[in-house]
Design brief:
By secondary structure, the chain is an all-alpha fold. The protein contains twelve helices and no strands. It has one domain.
Amino acid sequence: MPLPQNPAEEAAYAELLAWQKQMQRPPSRLARFTRRMQLRLNGLLPERVHQAITGTIRQLVRGVLFGSTHLTRRPLAAASLAAREAAVRDHLRDYRLMATAEGAVTGAGGFLLGLADFPLLLGLKLKLLFDVAACYGHDVRDYPERLYLLHVFQLAFSSQHTRNETYYRLAHWDAYRHTLPAEAADFDWRTFQQEYRDYIDLAKMAQLVPVIGAAVGAVANYQLLQQLGTTAMNCYRLRYFAGPAAAALPASPAPVRAG
């Protein structure tokens, strides 16, 4: 595809290039310190706890993402980028409202109801990704497209260390897709759940606190949906501008120091 030909595409392309730079930044000192602390805390948990959490998240995500096709919309065909992104923003607005209301209700309901927020919010996030993919013309009934959504989700909710690696896979998706696991069960669910849990722990733990829980839940859910929507839009822009955007990518992922 040629370079952007109209103001709407030029604006989207400029946002994409800025986002690409953000995704390729090396982890800051604070990010590296936080990651070390999270790894230590995770190391204190018994293996059976890790297995239980991994199994729960795996079943929740697979149930929505791979379990059925009736949740999928038909891909939007023969539409301009501006029309596609207008539809995405409409969906994102609706999902933000639902997530904000859900966070306020569960946050106001105390500890037990607050725990219900996790699967409810996870479901909203995954359904948002279905709608975004359809708006950009991709059929998520195809297995590789669902794995793409899984990587988009991981990119949105992970540390900068893992984000660099996940971004590189998405930026070179046509090459990487040939190495995808044949079955969803073979996906690295352990890393997926740890990154997601570590990312949202601080924001969501405060939601369980009486009095402030409702306000915290509403704000946190709004921001988490916005983060996912922004990430998804730029990932699909990356595919839309496949030729020009690929030319702006480095030949290899940015060096990242472990820990």
